[in-house]
Amino acid sequence: MLENCRNARERWGGVSELIDRWLKERQELLVQYCDLSSKSDEQASETLQKQFERFCEVLMDYISAGHFEVYEQLIREADEFNDGGRELAEKLYPGLQKTTEQVLNFNDRLDGKALSGGQLDDLFAQLSELGQALETRFEIEDFMIEHLHNAHADKVLSSA
Q1: Distance (Å, rounded) from C-alpha 45 to C-alpha 125?
Q2: Backbone φ and ψ of 6, nearest 5°
């Protein structure tokens, strides 16, 4: 039994570090978003395009880390504890997928293209819509962390 407790700590203790790093990436994403949102579309289009490109890089890194690192770990943890977490994740995933599609659509508008003033105006309008999608996504992610990881934290910690 003690060996099982040690294994749980070794297996799931690192998930907290992964989540912490990912949430720091979220913070960087939010800083980039707020900085870009406060810009005027009257600024030089080259400067704005570079800022949009940087924002999209951070955005895609964040989304990728969520899908290919964090969510996978949370689902593995849910499977291990077998307490209904897998079913919860399956219910939440469509909401995440919807926001992923919105992020990808936003990113595709840039995709290395030089943008004119009118296209930049359009990006600023879509930035607001993207902000709403990100807010929804963050709520779902926080719910997943709370119910798929934090719910087991005491089991992992008590195994130390």
Answers
A1: 15
A2: -60, -45
